[in-house]
Write a structure and sequence with these properties.
This protein has about 190 residues and is mostly helical. The protein has two domains: about 1-30; about 35-185, Phycocyanins (Globin-like, Orthogonal Bundle), CATH 1.10.490. It is built from ten helices and no strands. The protein has helices at about 5-15, 20-30, 35-45, 50-60, 75-100, 105-110, 115-120, 125-145, 150, 170-185. The structure holds phycocyanobilin. The site of phycocyanobilin has 20 residues, from α5, α6, α7 and α8.
């Protein structure tokens, strides 16, 4: 498992070179935006159970066969496993976002997951749909712009003071980790 710093060391070592100035600049950027990164992680982590249940509910609304006999969210045992998997995926995405590196997600969550799902008959297209919903939710929470129309009375804002770019680079980075999950399952 690597983070932004150990990744720089491992890559430099692989080419027997020193850490170049471009890399140092990137790491300096990681440090100077560290508080924003922690806020982004917190925005996801403190909304996680709501995000997961909403994403899985949305996935089921769009494909109700999942909760009927023969569907992979039926019976309750499978429904529970599915919710748990949604939570696992979201948790590993937050770890990657904190570390600034995808290796923890790759090694400890995605490695072999496609094969496990194939063996258990878990439909990847449905899982991908739930992950897409979580990706959209995460972007809204990191930007601290959850949609009023969709959240209704449950609308919850983190109170971010960053207004100029709504943390666009962290939204893009988090999105890339969700995309990684999607491509690992596709
Ligand atoms: C730390 C990393 C880690 C991951 C990623 C993980 C995934 C994982 N999900 C599993 C099962 C499962 N996963 C699902 C998930 C779903 N079914 C659906 O229809 C939906 C599309 C989807 C939810 C989005 C279900 C229903 C099962 C149980 C399948 C069965 O036992 O028949 C299993 C088989 C063992 C078990 O049931 O616990 C594993 C290993 N376990 C881990 O330790």
């Amino acid at each position: 498992m690597l983070d932004a710093f150990s990744r720089a060391v491992v890559s430099a070592d692989a080419s027997t070179s020193c850490i170049d100035s471009g890399k140092i600049g990137e790491l300096r950027g990681y440090l100077s935006a560290a508080n924003r990164r922690l806020d982004a992680v917190n925005a996801i982590a403190s909304n996680a159970s709501c995000m997961v249940s909403d994403a899985i509910a949305g996935m089921i609304c769009e494909n109700q066969g999942l909760i009927q006999a023969g569907g992979n969210c039926y019976p309750n045992r499978r429904m529970a496993a599915c919710l748990r998997d949604g939570e696992i995926v979201l948790r590993y995405v937050t770890y990657a976002l904190l570390a600034g590196d995808a290796s923890v997600l790759d090694d400890r969550c995605l490695n072999g997951l496609k094969e496990t799902y194939a063996a258990l008959g878990v439909p990847s297209t449905s899982t991908v749909r739930a992950v897409q919903i979580m990706k959209a939710q995460a972007a809204a929470h990191i930007k601290d712009e959850p949609s009023e129309a969709r959240a209704g009375a449950k609308l919850r804002k983190m109170g971010s003071t960053v207004t100029e770019d709504r943390c666009a680079s962290l939204v893009a980075e988090a999105s890339s980790y969700f995309d990684r999950v999607i491509s690992a399952l596709s």
